[in-house]
Amino acid sequence: MRRKFDFFILLITGYWLLVTVLTGCGPTYPREKFEESVIKVCKKDYKIDVKVEAIGKTIAIYLPLSKLIDFNFAITKSAGEKINDVILSVSRVALSSDAEFDFYVIIAHDVAVPEIQIVIIKSVDDVKRFLLNDISRGEYSKRMLIDIRMSPQAQKERSIKEIFERMDLDESSREQILNDFFRAEPAALGDIGYWNDRFYIKEVSNLEFVAAQIAGRVKTNFRDDKNISGLFMLKAVKCQYMAKDSRDYFRLEITADPKSLGQAKGTDYHGKIFGEGIAASAVVIHNYHFNDFEYVEIVDVVDGKSIEVTRDDLEKFRRKRLKLEDILK
Amino acid sequence: MIPRLWKMYIKTNWIKFAIILVILLVVALAVWGLMSLESFYRNITLATMPINLIMVALNATIFVFMYMTFMRGGFAKMSKSKIKGNLVNVKWNDVIGMEEAKREAWEVVQLMKDRTRVKQIGGKILRGMLMLGPPGCGKTYMAKAIATEAAVPFLSMSGSEFVEIFVGVGASRVRGLFKKARELAYGYGGCIIFIDELDAIARKRVFSVFGGTEETNSTQNQLLAEMDGLQEKDENVVVIGATNAPEDNLDSALMRPGRFDRKLYIDRPNLEEREKLFGFYFDKVKCDKDALDIKRLARKAVYKSPAEIENIVKESALLAARDNKESITYKHVSDAIERIEMGMKHRRHMTVREKEMTAYHESGHLIVLYLLHPTEDVFKASIIGRKESLGVVHTHPREEMFTKSKESFLADIKVALAGYVAEKIRFGTTSSGVAMDFKMAMQRAQFMVWSLGMNDVGLIGDYALIHETQLSEKVKQALNDATADIFNKCLKDVEDLLLKERVLLDRFVKELLDKEELDYDEIDAIFKEYGKFGTTVT
Questions:
Q1: pLDDT band for position B363 (cuts 50, 70, 90)
Q2: What value does the mean pLDDT of chain B take?
Q3: Does residue B415 share a domain with residue B498?
Q4: Which CATH number do you get for residue B180?
Q5: What percent of chain B has pLDDT over 90?
């Protein structure tokens, strides 16, 4: 019996080794052909023309579409499908490559209205974990940063061009001045875009991504959680990674007005806003195993109040070993 | 021969070849499929492949186990084993203690080897050989030696392996066994099927008036058909059956020529063979063979089978190891025989009177046995309890006797009655310890008179065969009187002898009470001290 078992294990090992050796473990899409591979896959499998540019460990894909947004300012079905196809293609190439990208940015805009852009930022690691069933589809969706916005470059150029008009600047020198003084690389994730056949991209850092994730998670909660959305009108959420007195921290600013006039602004009111901020921060920071900070400062912009929650308290809150009331004290 | 071997190999192992081909195909398909995958998915597949394979194998094992257990009557079918003749490795010279049987078996080996010559002459090849005899006499060993000598594959199965509660399984296994044997015979030029404990499937068939039949019938019918039925090809397959059941118990159809043509009776070894056996087994252990007196041991081990002799040597080695001795001594062998024959000592707490009565009882047996018995020797006398008895006088025959004389029967009766007489002489009363002695003495006396014609009333013949109601009162009376006469005469003779040897009797009682056990040498010395000598073989 023992010999049979040994033989069986040997057979399986032999089979596995044989198949592994014969197939090899090399990447399907090598680093040097990464951009080319994304373009090819999108063209071959989905007949979509894209442009690709890499910066550091971030890859940016530009996707021109017709009818990106409908009359309700929502993404059309056909555009949504194409965006998904491109996401899938980039994911495939990124996962089967030795390029070791950390993030990818998909910029889609309507060729008819190029000022309107959709910017999607994703972590390659999230895609991998989703494909390995390590995270759920719902969680995977929450981890995708989607922003529909006016192209910042377009806005900027329009303003500058208006100034040029008023200055009556010579046409021939306008482009030169734009290039020299106004077409700078983006400094924040919100500046990422594509305008006039040019990528405006920056390398996405882990800090920015986590901060953006926290803000995005708060937005989602204020939209989807009826207990909150019924009470507040969220106006803005902003999260930044900062340093003060040699201490690194996240500053999460939440601007939310109460829906009912005359609603009491007591502990409960602040508690709900701070509670959402703490919950979102705790989950995101745990998801990305991020430890390079000391505390999270949550600011209720409308009321001007803020609290500081340490890293340990965040983890205890997530594990339900610390109540919100105890943190607020 | 090589192409035939290859053809046979492919025929017998086609399933293995098919499995190998499938595995190669699966490997090729797996490689092809994995090559078409992107490296991420390929790596995931490769990483999970071992656990997936194990899970598939586990599922398959569970399925096969359930299928075999519930649908095919268990895994017994799988136990059929082929052994190559040269791997059996029992050399002809290793077979000792059965010279007569060896000569017969050698002929079978030659017939298997010279099959072509036999066919040229027009003779039919040997189909089967049946080995009969008591257990432990080396039937299986002989079969192995035949396989080694003939250098052909050896398929071994036990008769009980064919027996199953599922109808048809036995017959199916017989078919499978012979199919396999023919395939091997095709390749190797011959094959031996050895069926041990053949009586499991070869008992006389039972034919029911209701038309039903026993499962063993169909198994045996299949065996009959395979051994001498219509076959496409006549391969050199010889069936060797072994059983310790009497020949009469086996079905006559199986015993006819063309099936088990040869019958080999493998009996217990004689004196010379026992000497060889002791020598053979003592060669395998550490001992001084000269000091052991193998001739004496062989005489002691009358009626012992080779297996029993092997067991004695094995037990002696264990006793020597227990005594922290480096080699086996005669005492170890003697103790081993005693342990095997008489069982473990079991000391019971007896009263002084009980102990004395037991000593007189055993001394009575001992004196009569030594002085009167023509064929039995005393081996040991003891008043230490063993099994159910409080004491014992252990005997062994001086040599194999294949018949038993009237004198020997009478001596048996006298020895049996001696315990009773000794108790009565000393105590004037007797104990329940005589029950088994009387039973034995009475059985012997009745057997002599009723069945062997050993009576003085002129009633010669086996009256025990005639139903009691068919015997006249006069005949019955005469036979019973003759039985009682033998019994009483023996009783009188024993009384006379023990009264005459009262001093000797008291001496043995004293010795037994002092030492509790007396060996042959001690007993013999005491008799010689009193100028008494035992009887000789008649």
A1: very high
A2: 82
A3: yes
A4: 3.40.50.300
A5: 16
Q: What are phi and psi of A194, to 5 degrees?
A: -140, 130
More confident call, A61 vs B469? A61
- Of A326, A260, A227, A249, the C-alpha closest to A294 is A249
Which DSSP state fits A185?
Answer: P
**Cβ–Cβ gap A25/B42 under 8 Å:** yes
Residue B328: inside a domain: yes
At residue B205, does pLDDT exceed 80? no
Kindly state whether residues B184 and B131 are assigned to the same domain: yes
Whether residue B441 has pLDDT greater than 90: yes
Domain limits for position B303: 271-342
Please list, in sequence order, all residues whose beta carbon lies within 8 angstroms of the beta carbon of residue B419, skipping any fewer than 6 positions away. B361, B362, B364, B365, B433, B434, B437
Last residue of a domain, one of B265, B289, B315: B265
At A277, the pLDDT band (50, 70, 90 cuts) reads very high
Closest Cβ opposite residue A26 in set B34, B39, B44: B39
Q: What is the pLDDT of residue B87?
A: 60
Q: Which of B273, B310, B341, B362 is catalytic?
A: B362
- Which among A12, A19, A97 has the least Cβ separation from residue B27? A19
Q: For the domain that residue B277 is a member of, what is the CATH number?
A: 1.10.8.60
Distance CA A128, CA A97 (A): 12
Lowest average pLDDT, out of A28-42, B205-219, B274-288, B487-501, goes to B205-219
* Residue B213 confidence class, pLDDT cut points 50, 70, 90: low
CB pairs under 8 A between A and B: 53
With an 8 Å Cβ cutoff, are A25 and B46 in contact? Answer: yes
* Residue B62 C-alpha, separation from nearest chain A C-alpha, in angstroms: 15
pLDDT in tens, B73-91: 555 554 555 555 556 677 7
Domain count, chain B: 4
B536 within some domain: no
Determine how many CB atoms are found less than 10 A away from the CB of residue B160.
13
Q: Do A19 and B44 touch (CB under 8 A)?
A: no
Please state which of the ranges A7-11, A104-108, A289-293 shows the lowest mean pLDDT. Answer: A7-11
Does the pLDDT value for residue B137 go beyond 90?
no
- In-domain check, residue B382: yes
Query: Does the annotation count B362 as an active-site position?
Result: yes
Residues B235 and B289 in one domain: no
**In this predicted structure, what is the pLDDT of residue B537?**
39
The verdict on a CB contact (< 8 Å) between B38 and A95 is: yes
A71 CB-contact burial (10 Å; exposed 0-12 / middle 13-18 / buried 19+)? exposed
B contact set with A (CB within 8 A) = 23, 27, 30-31, 34-35, 38-44, 46, 49-50, 53-54, 57
| Structural domain ending residue among the three candidates B18, B42, B75 | B75
Same domain? B261 vs B282: no
Instruction: Note whether B34 contacts A19, CB cutoff 8 Å.
Output: yes
Nearest chain A residue to B29 by CA distance is A19
Q: B40 to chain A: nearest residue by CA?
A: A96
Kindly state the tokens that stand for B153: 């594959």
Picking from B23, B32, B37, B40 by the largest number of A CB atoms within 10 A of its own CB, the best residue to mutate is B40
Task: Look at the block and give the residue holding tokens 């009262």.
Answer: B502
ipTM, two decimals, is: 0.72
Pairing of strands B81-83, A305-310: unpaired
- For the beta sheet containing A232-244, the strands, ordered from the edge strand earlier in sequence to the opposite edge, are A232-244, A247-258, A295-300, A305-310
Closest Cα in chain A, distance from residue B331 (Å): 43
> Which residues of B are less than 8 Å from A19 in CB distance?
27, 30-31, 34, 46, 49
Answer yes or no: do B302 and B210 share one domain.
no
